[in-house]
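Q: What changes when 2-OXO-4-methylpentanoic acid is included in the input?
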Amino acid sequence: MQPQFDIQLSDSVTAQRREKALQNPGFGVHFTDHMAVVEWDSEQGWHNAAVTPYAPLQMDPAAAVLHYAQEIFEGMKAYRQPDGGIALFRPGKNAVRFNRSAKRLALPEIPEELFLEACRQLVRADEAWVPETAYHSLYLRPFMIADEVFLGVRAAQRARFIVIACPAGDYFPGGVKPLDLWLSTKMTRAAAGGTGFAKCGGNYAGSLAATAEAYENGCQQVLFTDAYDRDSIDELGGMNLFLVTDDNKLITPEVNGNILEGVTRDSIIQLAKNLGYEVAERRVTISEWREGAATGAIREAFACGTAAVVAPIGRLLVKDAPEIKLPEPTGTITMQLREELMGIQHGTISDTNGWLERIS
Ligand code: COI
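A: The predicted holo structure follows.
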């Protein structure tokens, strides 16, 4: 039986702190007043579900996650709707992907309904934190950590599932400005049989040195290629990639076990098809991109993800090689898909796909 949530609301909530955070939320810097927590161990299964005041975690220094990075996470958003209510966007997709990640990281799978209920309960407790500003949202970060106190290398027998939330404005400061990408030619993020498809902290930790290299070269994101041929495009540091051709086709790397199966990626594919564009999910190479950008056959490129939504790309910078410049950095199709997706999420465009789940 699913554990019931014990709701322990904080009595020290300050409206002033919230209002200040909502005025300029940025991304991932201000956290709401509560968190949802559910515990697991191999004997009792999932138990002790609660919404508690947001607080630092107590953890033994020998907890498995601190040594072997047995951890996974998700990213999803709650959106204020025009009638004042709140909706989640395709939360079931996140629940399913979370369990795929759990399986790969030898963590316990969590019943989808328990995952979803934790998210709903947290949003209800922190309802006042869901922004009313256009295109702002409440970002939810469900995650699971192995907290068994044991240094042996095996799957932990104890874990905690936690959901925290932060109001979110633009992921990239400065709004919709075309991104410059840095091609990582030395470091890769995934290989066949690895954890590339899973949303685990280790994948992101492994991308940070390459991201630092991108920053040093004046870029906002790093682009990774396949570990073997170093030409096939994999994904960015934290987003999927699409190219748009001059005959209005979208091309994106196929789901091949190495890239994250983005919920935004999937939504863009469906929206593009609904709008009459052809979409090819296949191997895409840097060579093809370079040649296409030079001839004009590839006109636009964009990154997409829950946090970044749809971010146009201006240039791809490559060490010791000429940069690749997109002819139309904030092109028509990129911006159309961005407006369409955000309109559906925020309830200003009809949700004909049935993607919103109203929670209030
Ligand atoms: C997201 O878009 O939700 C992500 O997880 C990407 C990044 C913030 C890690």
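Observations recorded in class: The pocket of 2-OXO-4-methylpentanoic acid is lined by residues 75, 204, 238, 305-307 (CB under 6 Å).
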